[in-house]
């Protein structure tokens, strides 16, 4: 019994010391930007860090998108090596790392999904001076749903106290949820629209960035007194997330594949937005192949993907890769998608999948990749980017 008491007291003492040290690290960084939302978190984290760096801020960033990365004071990226599954306690070590570099600003992506953990991350770890909620979409509905307004409620748990919230969400009900939370916490809210970002502004990016992401990042930089031209120039040079939207054209043996990597889109609305955007610029494609990367730990998303295939993404073929692909296959078939159009390559290695895509291509095709960027998704995107002859 005595040993148990000693162990409990030791753990309590360790927790108190850890909390005191973290509070010191956190308070040494006067500007703390907490990035949350359904889509665009990693891109916006990188863009803001770049813009502030150009404006002379001693800033570090942490993105947890396709691959978790620390962004150092000079813009160099450092891989985050995890032992086991991701844990929100990781944020404590990020603040320690930033404090040692005497950072004056930190841009940190929210890594929690559970509403309770989102709240704990903000209240006990980040204590943001600036909060960002990119948007509220139909993603992680099994955890934050059942409606998009429940998602908005969950995301609003990271609204800062006595700070400023920036959002690119425009749904009036979602905005009212965010505004109510801001009022309760003594914060102001800024709704950011992308009208101020021109098509010409977007030509400086080497990939297909979203205007609303750029608008949000520029608004935050302006709030911190970095002029637009300076911030935007550095954003062009910033390294994008590996899962960023790219459209690449690859030639092989007189055949051509246009590969659109939309696997980092987390929700049906974002996926459809990218679908229309890509087909608008490459609408002459008669042979479209939808490539779907499934994950066994994303069952709800798999059901959404099956519905997208059957109802919204007309294609010549649907190639399923990754794990638990049978769930998508069965649901899509039950919803009326012809079985001969569905090619289940669940568990197949990258080389076999690539060869199948070339086999399915008569002369030219567009491969529209959706689902999840992890594992084979990242391998396939790297293959087509590495072999591209034209970057659309």
Helix and strand element order: HEHEEEHEHEHHEHEHHHEEHEHEHEHEHE
> How can the largest sheet be summarized?
8 strands, mixed
**H/I helix tally:** 15
How many runs of DSSP E, i.e. beta strands? 15
On the 0-100 scale, what is the average pLDDT?
91
Query: What is the beta-strand fraction?
Result: 15-25%
Walkthrough of the structure:
This protein is α/β, with parallel strands linked by helices and 392 residues long. The chain folds into 2 domains: 24-237, UDP-N-acetylmuramoyl-L-alanine:D-glutamate ligase (3-Layer(aba) Sandwich); 246-391, Protein-Tyrosine Phosphatase, Chain A (Alpha-Beta Complex), CATH 3.90.190. It contains 15 helices and 15 strands. Helix 2 crosses helix 10 and helix 6 runs parallel beside helix 7. The chain starts with a helix and ends with a strand.
Keywords, separated by commas or semicolons:
2 domains, UDP-N-acetylmuramoyl-L-alanine:D-glutamate ligase, 44% helix, alpha/beta, 8-stranded mixed beta sheet, disordered C terminus, Protein-Tyrosine Phosphatase, Chain A, 392 residues, 7-stranded mixed beta sheet
Question: SSE layout and pairings?
Answer:
Blueprint: H1 2-27, E1 31-36, H2 41-54, E2 59-63, E3 69-71, E4 77-79, H3 90-100, E5 105-109, H4 115-126, E6 130-133, H5 141-144, H6 148-155, E7 164-167, H7 172-185, E8 188-191, H8 199-202, H9 211-223, H10 228-237, E9 246-252, E10 255-261, H11 268-281, E11 288-294, H12 299-311, E12 317-322, H13 325-334, E13 342-344, H14 350-359, E14 364-370, H15 376-386, E15 390-391
Parallel strand pairs: 1-5, 1-6, 2-5, 6-7, 7-8, 10-14, 11-12, 11-14, 12-13
Antiparallel strand pairs: 2-3, 3-4, 9-10, 9-15
Helix pairs in contact: 1-3, 2-9, 2-10, 6-7, 12-13
């Amino acid at each position: 019994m005595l040993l148990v008491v000693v162990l409990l007291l030791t753990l309590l003492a360790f927790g108190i010391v850890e909390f005191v040290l973290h509070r010191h690290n956190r308070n040494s960084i006067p500007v703390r930007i907490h990035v949350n939302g359904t889509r665009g978190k990693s891109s916006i984290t990188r863009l803001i860090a770049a813009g502030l760096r150009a404006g002379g801020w001693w800033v570090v960033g942490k993105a947890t998108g396709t691959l978790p990365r620390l962004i150092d004071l000079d813009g160099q990226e450092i891989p985050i090596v995890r032992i086991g599954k991701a844990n929100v306690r990781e944020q404590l070590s990020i603040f320690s790392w930033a404090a040692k570099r005497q950072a004056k600003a930190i841009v940190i992506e929210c890594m929690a999904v559970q509403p309770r953990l989102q709240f704990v991350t903000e209240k006990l770890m980040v204590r943001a001076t600036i909060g960002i909620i990119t948007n509220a979409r139909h993603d992680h509905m099994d955890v934050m749903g059942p409606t998009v307004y429940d998602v908005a409620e969950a995301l609003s748990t990271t609204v800062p106290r006595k700070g400023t919230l920036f959002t690119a969400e425009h749904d009036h009900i979602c905005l009212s949820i965010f505004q109510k939370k801001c009022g309760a916490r003594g914060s102001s809210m800024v709704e950011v629209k992308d009208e101020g970002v021109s098509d010409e502004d977007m030509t400086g990016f080497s990939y297909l960035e979203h205007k609303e992401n750029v608008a949000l990042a520029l608004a935050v930089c302006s709030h911190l007194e970095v002029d637009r031209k300076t911030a935007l120039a550095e954003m062009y040079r910033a390294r994008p997330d590996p899962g960023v939207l790219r459209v690449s054209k690859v030639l092989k043996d007189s055949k051509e594949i246009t590969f659109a990597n939309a696997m980092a889109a987390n929700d049906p609305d974002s996926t459809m937005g990218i679908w229309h955007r890509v087909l608008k610029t490459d609408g002459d494609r008669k042979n479209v192949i939808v490539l779907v990367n499934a994950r066994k730990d994303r069952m709800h998303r798999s059901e959404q993907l099956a519905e997208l295939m059957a109802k919204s993404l007309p294609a010549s073929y649907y190639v399923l890769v990754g794990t638990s692909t049978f769930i998508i296959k069965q649901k899509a078939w039950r919803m009326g998608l012809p079985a001969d159009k569905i090619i289940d390559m669940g568990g197949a290695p990258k080389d076999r999948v690539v060869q199948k895509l070339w086999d399915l291509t008569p002369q030219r095709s567009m491969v529209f990749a959706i689902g999840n960027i992890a594992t084979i998704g990242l391998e396939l995107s790297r293959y087509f980017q590495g072999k591209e002859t034209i970057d659309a």
